[in-house]
Design goal:
The structure is a homotetramer of 338-residue chains.
Chain A lengths: L8 H14 L6 H24 L2 H32 L14 H7 L2 H15 L7 H7 L14 H10 L1 H26 L10 H12 L12 H47 L7 H14 L3 H17 L27
Helix pairs in contact in A: 1-3, 2-3, 3-5, 7-10, 8-9, 8-10, 10-11, 10-12
Chain lengths: 338, 338, 338, 338
């Protein structure tokens, strides 16, 4: 496939491995099976760690958990080595294609580090005398391997990144209020409850639990000023819930409009010759998937563009036949500018 | 009515039953009475189940509850049989019109299953020796029969479905954090409170109650690291409240714009001949109801379209004086595309 | 003033009273003093009720509270009688202008009933032997008299009314889930805690407190299924916070756009002759206040319209001098339609 | 630099101090070092206050905290005096440039008062015999000095100010409900729990903690009516979380559109001559930073304007070939109007 037939069997195997591990393709069933197999194994690992922490289950089936752990680490180790070995044939990341530098760069990438963390504790436990319970709980971090398979998370992270300055400012205001509230609570309650409000860090625990509206009730104010302060912190906390909600609502709305505008532009281009060809249709479907737009929205955009084109359709005065619009002057999109 | 006079009395009765049970019409008072009667009966059933669970009331009036239950099951059984019998004459669902396949399809539909669940426990209790309290509580599921009568819920479900990928990604991130938080809490608190943080599932209960900002206070962290973790989970929980709020705000806004665009299009079509006829006006009112738009918004849309039409009014080339607008070139809305 | 000089002194006094009590005018200082005086008195009343409920304060200063109460009731009674007497001269509500029917209509209006509730308990206490503490607490209802003076609340109520169908659907879904959760919690916990989960209403109290993420902790689940249910209800509760936030965000956004469009239209009309006269400027400022728009938004709208006008300025081809736009065909806004 | 060479050394030093303390410039490394140094010192102060409140740490290292405090107060005092001295040379605030009135105005400004509060308690403690713990906690207020360095907070405050009327109305409704709920709770629970619901202020503490969904659990209703009330307050509280979230979402969205419109306008102006010069590019980047827009949004705006220009490119009447667009008629933005 794609010109790899002329290569040596070794390089062919490496390219095939890269295709299996790094690309998502509808036409490659084996690649899908590998993905599904890994997802199932990761999920089973998480279930195993959770169940093993229950004493009764651990006592009854400890050996099986041990065998399963060895099997899992073997598979994940093979996966890790195979990824590092074949990454230089990953067609989507030319930056990793250099035999040495590419592999090092990949090994320092976020996803590769997660893969390493998934297996490292097992090997380290031979050399270091670590707490067994901690080691077991660390296995739970394997759950992060799943993030490789979720494409919709990209949108979440994008909105968070774009709104990061505003969210950061909101957090800064919260921290300001938290420090002031903690020191006031310390002053108000320290004498009445020297054990619970023993220091500002202790008061801060209470203030965070109140400001996030969790309100466990293990620490509660008893003095009138402390109670007044608690009520005020609760009200501020209410605003601290509303603030990020408002910021994110604006962010998601903005991201949606931007993604819709990108689709609109492509539909405009596709319709430049008056009709959407099969190839263009496939391209548009790919873009809709990539932009994480839902079908209803995508259709609405496509319909709106067609509608608009139809109204402008003649492009020329239908009676005197002269062009009213001149499309060809559109500049190429300069995405790097500023 | 509508051409059913020439049918046999049996088929006339069936068609009339279908009209009573499946359609909503202002001009058919009996159909409205049937609907209102069923809504009242369902509501009374729920009140009865709730009251019967109070021991004092049950002891004082057990017999009346029993008679009411028999009466209710009789009515709901008749309703169920009548629906299955007459569904093949339901003009709104041609897919159910086949005498055998149509009825089976209907019986497997969501609404029919709810109707069945409402009566099945009563009949099953003759054969199976089930816990009486469980049986009684199951009657509460009759409340779902009410969902047949709420049209505004459609919008909620639509927004949820459209935003499902983003909400799903948000949930995935939450679950990731929940697992990590639970295992860290287990490590931090297991030794100090071996009874409350006995296993990761136990720690997970605490982590969910904290992350949703419920904070019962039956389980609270006592170690410094546990308290720090509790405060962090509270802060994350605050984001977990804000995230779906932001996603849904964007979704509702989007749905509103789309529904408004649909009304706009119809108003444009209705105004193509320059005036909204009585029939077109009735159609528009029907559409406004169907789209769940409020009157203020609907009027704003209609006014805007009229305004726009008025401004474009000449619609002719200012130079040769012939119409520039050619509405008939508008393609039919392709709702299946992509 | 406004043609009242020719009236009898009695009717002049009544018209003046109506002007003092029912209109807000910058040019009538006495009207402002009456408003401010009433607002201060209402606020003092609320402070008094709250303070009087504290035993120590009541014991120390009971008499003064009594004298203040008699003074307040006297003023509020005079206000009530004066309003009923003069309402028929209220120029803003022609529907109240009939001497008998108008007064009865006014007395049944929301604001008049609140005024009546503010004084009725005092008079009733002479005839009915009511609990003194209840009577005193009822005085707190006087706070509702303040709602007469808040104009920004109109927007809140408008958004709530417009989104009422969607909010209603969200509440219906919540109630459905609440009933199901309560009956499941009753089944799961009744045997383990027969005192706390004694009946479905009792379980419902716990379910509401959990679903609203309050989580007092006075009732907590102890069985594994109950704990799982509690965690699930918490997660659902999180969605129940997000849902109205999303609906209201969309509603406020929509209301803002609509109000801005209304201002835009008026600015367009004012600029029809090319310039905003002093009178038009005053009208626009009045509209901005009435629409509850902030100055920044209002200026942005006015600037945008001016900008647009400037670009279209010629309105005619600047070279061949023929009109490209025809404004006079704009229909009058039909606000009642549909 | 900028013409200060001809001044006396004293005035040169003052102008240099003003440049160091009041301006942010990439080209002045010393100014950046001063800023960073002050930020680090403020942060260390906060850490010190928090740590010192822990008894063990205070006992072990009390002296070091004392020396650090003296050092900090010295630096902050020098900073304060230097700011008051040099403020009259601050080029960004001409209103402070008068030697006496300008300095007094500055000393009464928000930032200067915060600077004063940061050092005042230290000097006052020599004259007044204050509680040492209170004095120490007051040092935490130094954290407000950090607000000078956060530019993104401006957007938060702007949105809050613009939506203040609507938020105020929401708060007013909350307070109304709170008073009613408190007095009802007082009536319902006073007899059953005379110690916890001793007065309306006491009931109000419980009502706020419930309405903000904090729910400590130190005070819980025990009577059926009290429990019903608690559940209702919880539901209202849910709305009280949703309301500000919705208001702020609309506010942030609105602010974003306005800022984007401002950028659009500048890009239009920059493109009037067909090309963006280097100087214009630098101006635009400066504006993007100032408006707190993210790069993706900024690029989208610039691209959209270019696209639009390109489509209108001919800008000439297609028949007589002369320009239709007359940019110079655009009026200057009147930001003070209304």
């Amino acid at each position: 496939m794609d010109g790899t037939e002329s290569l040596s069997p070794y390089r062919r195997a490496r390219a095939r491995t890269a295709a299996l591990l790094f690309t998502v393709s509808k036409d490659d069933p084996l690649s899908r099976y590998v993905d599904i197999g890994l997802i199932v194994l990761i999920t089973l690992n998480i279930v195993a760690v959770v169940l093993e922490s229950v004493d009764d289950i651990h006592r009854a089936a400890g050996d099986y958990f041990h065998y399963f752990e060895i099997f899992s680490v073997t598979v994940f180790s093979i996966e890790y080595v195979a990824r590092v070995w074949s990454v230089i044939d990953n067609p989507w990341k030319p930056v990793h294609n250099h035999p040495i530098k590419g592999r090092i760069k990949y090994m320092l990438s976020w996803m590769a580090l997660i893969d390493l963390i998934a297996i490292a504790p097992f090997y380290l436990s031979f050399f270091i005398d670590a707490d067994l319970r901690v080691l077991r709980a660390l296995r739970l971090l394997r759950i992060f391997k799943l993030s490789r398979y979720s494409s919709a998370m990209t949108l979440l992270f994008q909105v968070f990144r774009e709104e990061s300055r505003t969210i950061g400012a909101a957090m800064f205001v919260s921290v300001l209020m938290l420090f002031v509230a903690s020191s006031l609570a310390f002053i108000a309650e320290h004498e009445a409850q020297p054990d619970k409000f023993s220091s500002i860090p202790a008061a801060m625990y209470w203030a965070v639990i109140t400001m996030t509206t969790v309100g466990f009730g293990d620490v509660v104010p008893v003095t009138p000023w402390g109670k007044f302060l608690g009520a005020m912190i609760g009200v501020i906390g209410l605003g601290m819930v509303a603030l990020p909600a408002g910021i994110l609502a604006s962010g998601f709305d903005n991201a949606l409009h931007r993604r819709r505008a990108m689709l609109e532009e492509k539909v405009h281009a596709a319709l430049a010759d008056g009709e959407i060809s099969d190839e263009e249709q496939a391209d548009l479907e790919e873009l809709v998937r990539h932009l994480n737009l839902n079908t209803v929205d995508a259709n609405a955009v496509i319909y709106a563009v067609k509608h608009q084109k139809a109204q402008q359709a003649p492009g020329v005065c239908p009676h005197c036949g002269k062009s009213l619009h001149t499309q060809e002057k559109l500049p190429a999109r300069p995405s790097e500018e500023i």
